[in-house]
TrEMBL record:
Gene3D superfamilies in the cross-refs: 3.40.50.2020
Biological or metabolic pathway of the protein: Pyrimidine metabolism; UMP biosynthesis via salvage pathway; UMP from uracil: step 1/1
GO cellular component: cytoplasm
Family matches, as CDD domains: PRTases_typeI
Pfam families referenced in this protein's UniProt entry, alphabetically: UPRTase
Family as reported in the entry's similarity comment: Belongs to the UPRTase family.
Domain Phosphoribosyltransferase: 5-210
Notes on how activity is controlled: Allosterically activated by GTP.
Single GO MF annotation: uracil phosphoribosyltransferase activity
Full protein name: Uracil phosphoribosyltransferase
Residues involved in 5-phospho-alpha-D-ribose 1-diphosphate binding: R78, R103, D130, P131, M132, L133, A134, T135, G136, G137, T138, D203
Cofactor dependency: Mg(2+)
Length: 212
């Protein structure tokens, strides 16, 4: 597993406003959207492309286009939904599948409550959207779900990660023969006793959708 922390002053600025507890949902949603687009630029560095012949107004030439099959973008419900538009801005022809996962707040384990994905993901590049890589349980389960269906290249896009979650993900994916990259805006200090990222930004779903 490769972890890429995107080091960019705009990412740092937007993340700081997101973290601020006084930032309200409408601003939070806009900033998350902008931040994901910046992360998406880095996350798509390995997107598969192929040569194509085109003719410009001046001359024929060879260009580059996204290869088939189309990449699949998978937001993990609920909070991953707040990252979808920001990702699709850069990959507008991607297919979108949905995975509903919920974390049991006592055991901190993830379970799947909904899925809308193609049965066969052979040869597909998947971009998983999950804002908070906290314990790593949800992301590990989502990645296993996708690779069990044949996905052969996974990039997770997260806003924040905790070192404990990255370590667990690395452990759980150790035997997996599929490249996994995690692209994140910042690696925070730790998890607290409730499984929240510290300093973090609180509950990403609640802050996106205005639940207090
Ligand atoms: N999920 C969140 O929304 N926030 C955290 O800090 C951890 C998990």
């Amino acid at each position: 597993m490769r972890t890429l922390v995107v080091d960019h002053p705009l990412v740092a600025h937007k993340l700081t406003v997101l973290r601020d507890e006084t930032t309200e949902s409408p601003t939070f949603r806009n900033l998350a959207d902008e931040l994901v687009t910046l992360l998406a630029y880095e996350a798509t560095r390995d997107v598969r492309v192929e040569d194509c012949a085109i003719v410009t107004p001046v001359a024929p030439t060879t260009g580059t286009k996204l290869a088939a099959p189309r990449p699949l973008v998978v937001p993990i419900l609920r909070a991953g939904l707040g990252m979808l538009d920001g990702m699709m801005r850069l990959l507008p022809t991607a297919e979108v599948g949905f995975l509903g996962m919920v974390r049991n707040e006592e055991t901190l384990e993830a379970s799947t409550y909904a899925e809308r994905l193609p049965d066969d993901l052979s040869g597909r590049q998947c971009y998983v959207l999950d804002p908070m890589l906290a314990t790593g349980g949800t992301l590990a389960a989502a990645i296993r779900f996708l690779t069990n269906r044949g996905a052969d290249h996974i990039t997770a896009v997260c806003l924040l990660a905790a070192p404990e979650g990255c370590a667990r993900l690395e452990d759980e994916l150790a035997g997996l023969d599929v490249p996994v990259t995690v692209v994140v805006a910042a690696m925070d200090e730790r998890l607290n006793e409730k499984g929240y990222i510290v300093p973090g930004l609180g509950d990403a779903g609640d802050r996106l959708y205005g639940v207090v």
